[in-house]
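User: Fold this; tokens only.

Assistant: Input:
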Amino acid sequence: TEPNVSRFMNCRRPMPGTSLAEIWVIGERTAVDHPIMNLALRHAVALLHHQAVPLSAEELIAILQSRWGVSYHLQFHRRAGRLYFQVMWGYLEQQSFPLNAAEYQLHLGQLAEQLNGLGVADQVRQWLLNNRDKPRLGKALSFPLPDQGRLSEFLL
């Protein structure tokens, strides 16, 4: 008998009273090879333990692939004393993309590490998951990173 997933989960958050064992059973039956479901499961477990979930290169790729079907280039951009996280219009699957898959993975790993260090990983994650726009040639998507006192370390 399959458990009713909606009984235990509300979007990506566990329902109050759901045990860790119940979440793992649901995950094994519904999220076997689906990257977004596996990420949702990881987030649900972290929420139960009141922990922040660090962002990873794999998660960034999974989000980009599920949202837009391609692996867009991501970068930081400084403008007028503010730091922005940008989704550019170039993507890994293009022949003209300047990075190969290994270099792209390394680049995203460094970005994820910096976002985690700034304490804005969850805000960037939510923005990527909920943004309605799509990057277009010559128009990047920009997310202004909230200044939590540590951004001045990155700005010269």
